[in-house]
Amino acid sequence: MLESLKCHEKSEAMDVLARAMGALLPDPLTGEVSLPAHDDEALSLIREVARRFRADLSDLSADQRVRILDHVGQEYSSLALKGVDKKEIRNRLGARGSLAPIQFKVTYSSLLKRDVGRRGLSLKEVEATVKRPTMYQHLFSTKEMGAAPPVSLFVHYNGLTDKRFHRWVFVIALRQGCEINALNAWHVFSDDLPEGLEIETPLDLLEAYCDVFGIPMHFCGLQGEKFLFFRRVKNISPDDFHREAVQAARSSGYDSGIGMFGASEAVDTFATDISVASFFDMNKYRASLTAHGIKFDQTPRR
Fold it and tell me: What is the pLDDT of residue 257?
């Protein structure tokens, strides 16, 4: 255990570690890190870990910050799992969104494995975004939407490119215990979004992106929505909803990309409970990649 935590009970030590991890995450827009000037316990812990890596907090590089954050996250997980069934605890922490991102096991949907290159990304970049996000958000269903799967959003800020635009990598995933199943991923560029837009959470970024790149949905009773968030669609099964969605996108002439498709059958009625769902215009997305100098796989699908 770290020296700065030895005088703390387990719950207190975990709280200090959690505050330290939060302080080490950079601002999503500027990428800057503001150390906790008014939190002596968290700052003392960060200083102790920094000394182990011979890092100068007054001139901290991005790699050093990540190494310190990883170490603090590992300390948190070790303390949380000490003396208990580690697999069960990891599943519980993951399910409620309390597991450090780096502790999740990352898997990939068949859609993402097939199309990641067409998004201008690699699976390695997707994993890095999940495990070392600039910001992330775990979404939870309500009692009324109990069948909707738990979803997590991860964003990695890649800096200001050519002094013109900010660039992010966005991953939307299904959370299954301590496993993150990455469903889809893509680039987001600030100059594609409305000027003056305030982005405080990954969900804000997702909604703004869908508003620009989204395809209006006109199927299963939907009235042109571009973005669905914890929505119940009645009188259709999840499988039929998925089939209708794909058919609608194809008939509209789009090379569709489904931002996320989390659906299951509700308990009390024949319906589909959706966590998050959207289409986005792949032609428009590819044009954006080209305009921003991002290479992507242009091989036609067979």
Answer: 47
Task: Estimate to the nearest angstrom the gap between the alpha carbon of 95 and the chain centroid.
Answer: 15
Tell me whether strands 105-108 and 179-189 are parallel, antiparallel or unpaired. Answer: parallel
DSSP-assigned beta bridge partners for residue 233: 272
Walking along the chain (302 residues) 10 residues at a time, the average pLDDT comes out as 87 92 77 78 92 86 87 88 69 77 91 90 95 91 68 87 78 89 92 86 91 84 84 78 76 51 50 79 88 86 62
Q: Which of 182, 187, 180 is nearest to 109 (CA)?
A: 182
Q: What is the pLDDT of residue 77?
A: 84
Q: Are 205 and 130 in contact (CB under 8 A)?
A: no
Q: Where are the domains of the chain?
A: 3-83, 105-291
Which residue, 64, 168, 181, 189, is CA-closest to 125?
A: 168
**Burial letters 126-156, b for 16+ CB under 10 A, else e:** bbbbbbbbbbbbbbebeeeeebbbbbbbbbb
Q: Cα Rg for the chain, rounded, in angstroms?
A: 21
Q: In what order do the strands lie in the sheet with 228-234?
A: 228-234, 271-281, 256-265
Which candidate, 4, 127, 17, 144, places its Cα nearest to that of 69? Answer: 17
Kindly tell me the burial class for residue 237, based on how many C-beta atoms sit within 10 Å of its own C-beta (0-12, 13-18, 19 or more): middle
Pairing of strands 271-281, 105-108: unpaired
Q: Please state the pTM of the whole predicted model.
A: 0.68
Phi-psi label, residue 127: left if phi above 0, alpha if psi -120 to 50, beta otherwise: alpha
